Amino acid sequence: MYCDDVLCPICDHPSQHKIYTMDNLFTVEEYIDCEPCNYHYSFTYGYYHEIIGGEDFYWSYDQPKDEMVEIRKKKADMIRNFREKLKSNTKGAQ
Fold first, then answer.
1. pLDDT score of 66
2. Percentage of residues of the chain with pLDDT beyond 90
3. DSSP bridge partners of 4
4. Cβ atoms 17, 9 nearer than 8 A
5. How many angstroms separate the CA atoms of 50 and 24, rounded?
């Protein structure tokens, strides 16, 4: 297992990042968890799961292209909306 901190793709906060490899050759599991914005990402044996703003997104390595396009659009909208919400909350707190 390999652990480090990465910046959250949603709020840029340092977040816990864990990677499990097989024989140090390829990744079999990967996790990112960010407590401040409750972002979660996991990759396990070809299957992906992300939680953005409380909404779950699932896909796999063999997801049809048209479905992936739709998932990416929904994720981009959620990320944009969540970042705007974070910015407005930060401005209100100042």
1. 95
2. 61
3. 17
4. no
5. 24
- 70: domain range? 2-93
3-state per-residue secondary structure call for the chain: CEEEEEECCCCCCEEEEEEEEECCCEEEEEEEEECCCCEEEEEECCEEEEEECCEEEEEECCCCHHHHHHHHHHHHHHHHHHHHHHHHHHHHHC
Q: What is the pLDDT of residues 22-36, one digit of tens each?
A: 888 888 999 999 999
d(CA 18, CA 32): 7
Number of folded domains that form the chain: 1
CA distance 90 to 21: 38
pTM of the model: 0.81
